[in-house]
Amino acid sequence: MAPATPTDGLRRVAMEAVTPEIDGGRFPAKRVVGETVVVEGDIFTDGQDALAAVLRYRHEAATRWIETPMAPLVNDRWRGEFPVTELGRYVFTIEAWVDHFETWSRQLAKRLAAGQDVRVELEVGARMIEETAARADGTTADSARLRELAKSLRIPNPHPAASPPTSPASGEVNGELTTLMRRYADRAQATTYAREVEVFVEPQKARFSTWYELFPRSTGPAGKHGTFKDVERLLPEIGRMGFDVLYLPPIHPIGRTHRKGANNKSAQPGEPGSPWAIGSEEGGHKAVNPELGTLADFRRLVKTAAGEGIDVALDIAFQCSPDHPYTREHPEWFKHRPDGSIQYAENPPKKYEDIYPFDFETEHWRELWQELLSIVLYWAEQGVSVFRVDNPHTKPFAFWEWLIAELRRAHPEAILLSEAFTRPKVMYRLAKVGFSQSYTYFAWRNTAYELYQYFTELSQPPIRDFFRPNLWPNTPDILTEYLQTGGRPAFQARLILA
Question: How far is Cα of residue 27 from the mean position of the Cα atoms in its chain?
């Protein structure tokens, strides 16, 4: 018994090395609204036949594909491009086929240049055009025109070696004929790329934005706790400095148990504690610290900032103080020590008794995930579209991929900044699973060589197609030696570089 033969044996075109494609299509490339996606790929076949290729793309909400031709570059490399005008996910693929008409046209031109008799070749071309006219029957005008062109190739010519008046080689109708032949090309044996490659499109601020961080409690008059209204009064000044994102550390009630003061010491009377120790009897992640104002005050701040061209970015820190309602209502979401107490955060030898991390290996992880998603959705409903996420590298990648996808399903305008000072592969994975921007090693790259090497790495494919650096010269808990000792020139240099 003869062995089975493949079903696609007549598909002669091969495709390789398509870009932008992240990890074999596992993750989407990233763009922002208004950009152009440039797609390249190695497209080739056996022998010397000419090829044709088209780039096919659509937004995820559309059902109809849009096609645009691809053009050859060098060494079998082809390129096409398409615009992205809407938020959300686009998909693209490539279709390519052996272009028998273009092959015939090239060979005809060579025969004519050599002074050969081309009557047989003209008949081959005429029949090819007639076959195309049959495929164009649904478009009467095009079909009729193709038949006219086929007929013109059969006009008797007293000089067989001369160019017939309407042959492609004459140039008189070459453009029209080529256009019609490509429009109704026979794609029965076309090769389609193995995958539909995804591109996720975000707001323009995901590509470039200027962030200003402040603690609202520090914006009040001397000796008084600042409020959202105090922050509101600063918005014009922040805008004049050129910032278009105002980042606020957690705005939630702060726990009192094991409250921390300066340098991780126990808080003294009157010290407000760390905003990242979230939760007290006044509420948790969906509550506002009453010392800052009300939810209505916060909503007004967001709206007023938007009027100044500034987005308010909210800190998302998935952790709790010992006083958080979750510790009583859902103790199963936390790790417990042998003595029955909840495990507090540690970075040995440092201890952070005022913070309880969630246990992402709990048997009740599904309920935990749903609750954490509800927190982000809640603040998105209050008008927040930009989030700075605290220590995402200490939570599972699968969790972030799920949460970000669900958030963007409801709010495609959402932008997320990953505060992950960690190993490069971890930072890159977080970008792949959905984070719009990431903190970087910029703060520790000081010399020209260091800066050149680092930004060369970040600007090369494939990293540049999914990872967007956010350049902070310093943070509330990172003040590099360069800034400590460099004086005013160091601050000026870092500002200009950032």
Answer: 9
Instruction: Report whether pLDDT(7) > 90.
Output: no
Mean pLDDT of the chain: 94
- Mark whether 309 and 375 lie in a shared domain: yes
Asked, for residue 1, whether it belongs to a domain, the answer is no
Segments in 61-139 forming alpha helices (H) = 100-113, 119-135
Same domain, yes or no: 123 and 267? no
Distances (CA, A) of 101 to 121, 124, 183, 248, 309: 11, 10, 12, 63, 55
CATH of the domain at 110: 1.20.58
Helix crossing, 119-135 with 140-152: angle to 10°? 170
**What's the whole-model pTM score?**
0.91
Q: What is the DSSP letter of 13?
A: -
Shared-domain flag, residues 169 and 95: no
Helices (H), 94-118: 100-113
The answer on pLDDT for 223 being more than 90 is no
Q: Is position 84 within any domain?
A: yes
Same domain, 354 and 251: yes
d(CA 301, CA 30): 30
Closest CA to 323 of 273, 362, 366: 273
Residue 145 lies in a domain: yes
What band does 1 get if pLDDT is binned at 50, 70 and 90?
Answer: confident
CA distance 48 to 184: 22
Once rounded to an integer, what is the mean pLDDT over residues 85-91?
98
For residues 142 and 244, membership in a common domain is answered with no
Residues present in the chain in total: 498
pLDDT at residue 232 is higher than 50: yes
pLDDT at 251: 99
**Rounded CA separation 417/434 (Å):** 10
How many other CB atoms sit within 10 Å of the CB of residue 36? 10
Considering the domain architecture, whether residues 360 and 216 belong to the same structural domain is answered as yes
Q: Which residues are catalytic?
A: 390, 419
CA 210 to CA 435: how far, in whole Å? 17
The pLDDT assigned to 366 comes to: 99
Q: Which of 42, 15, 40, 14 is nearest to 29 (CA)?
A: 40
Q: Which of 401, 424, 439 is the last residue of a domain?
A: 439
What's the pLDDT at 172? 45
Residue 6 lies in a domain: no
Domains held by the chain: number = 3
**Do 132 and 260 have their domain in common?**
no
At residue 168, does pLDDT exceed 80? Answer: no
- Last residue of one domain, picked from the residues 142, 166, 201: 201
Average pLDDT over residues 468-485: 94
How buried is 101 (Cβ within 10 angstroms: 0-12 exposed, 13-18 middle, 19+ buried)? buried
Do 69 and 104 lie in one domain? The reply is no
For residue 148, the enclosing domain spans 100-183
pLDDT of residue 495: 87
